[in-house]
Design goal:
Length: 139
């Protein structure tokens, strides 16, 4: 599949269908908040197939200078393992060029670890020469 990566805000219907396809009900249960979170993001990147269908999305939060936080990256299950997520992540990385910290939180699941490691990400406790810690306070 050939995919086109672009910076754009997709339609509400496209967003809801994609987030529902990966089972992210915590987002789709409040569609207004989901769309507001996309509008409030630093960057939203889409992946579209040859027919223009939305097959993936990534969005970041950033000050544009010192830190980029990758909040969501998702690929429709029918399009996974065909390079779409990697192409989106490459775009996020190139968009963050010159910015020291590109960080994210994700589930402790092997496939996701392999996905991020494929693009050079390291779990914080494994950073060399000195390991780092990350903290989170979930509401
Ligand atoms: C994680 C996710 C975005 C990966 O997208 P993808 O399009 O399947 O990824 P790619 O095909 O570009 O994979 C790139 C590389 O990542 C690694 N990888 C990706 N998924 C993997 C898996 N399930 N198991 C092992 N390695 C994996 C591989 O090294 C892969 O290269 P390869 O296909 O040549 O082996 C996708 O599985 C997804 O949307 N999952 C549901 C939502 C999610 O969990 N998002 C991440 C948390 S925010």
């Amino acid at each position: 599949m050939t995919v086109t990566i672009a910076g754009e805000l997709p339609s509400r219907e496209e967003v809801l269908a994609l987030y529902a396809a990966v089972g992210w009900g915590a987002y789709t249960d409040d569609a207004d908040r989901l769309m507001a979170s996309l509008r409030g993001s630093y960057a939203v990147f889409t992946a579209r197939d040859d027919a223009g269908g939305l097959v993936g999305l990534a969005r970041t939060i950033s000050d544009g200078h010192t830190i980029v936080y990758l909040q969501d990256i998702l690929v429709h299950p029918d399009a996974q393992r065909s390079g779409v997520g990697g192409a989106l992540l490459d775009r996020v990385i190139s968009d963050a060029a010159g910015i020291r910290q590109l960080v994210l939180l994700t589930d402790a699941e092997g496939g996701q670890r392999a996905f991020y490691e494929s693009r050079g990400f390291v779990e914080v406790h494994e950073v060399k020469p000195a390991p780092l810690r990350s903290f989170v306070r979930l509401g």
